[in-house]
Fold this protein.
Amino acid sequence: MAQYFEVHPENPQPRLLKQAVALLERGGILAVPTDSSYALACHLDDKAAADRLRQIRGVDEKHHLTLLCRDLSELATYARVDNRQYRLLKSGTPGAYTFILEATREVPRRVSHPQRKTIGLRVPDHRVLQELLALHGGPLLATTLIPPHETEPLNDAQEIRDRFEHQIAGVIDAGACPSEPTTVIDLTPMGTGGEAVVTRRGRGDISVLGL
């Protein structure tokens, strides 16, 4: 049975978020609110949790998982970023964007794309999630909470609990999220002189990035 944490969207109770972090430390998967839709998240260094994350989501190893980072300095630890890429990242963080970048050795090989050695990274603009990341002390491995064989992400915490209560460890309810996934931008072509490529249009406005 998934634990249910009902928190204030602007001033989340640290006691409840610490309990949620404890679930992550024990290998649990959480449904967490973001500035786009709800996401499934787990500890980056837990292989079994990452495998369950993919299983619940119904995706294989070629599906880009995302690292939820607190800020750009943390993001730069896990991705190779040149000056052009950094300027674009700075204009879109925090925000509802997922950026595809070349992974560094800090990213476990099992969670990066098997052929491309890339990883999705984002800095969410959501108070509750930012507080959770701060208490956790590092990035979380995540994927948009879109049920298998469906196309729309879930944004209601109670519905998520009802549908996934036997598959996940907890749900953080901070109110409904926007029901729209992030905009995904592949920045890897910029590393060889090319331009960024928008691979999915979502909640993030690409005009903010100059694209």
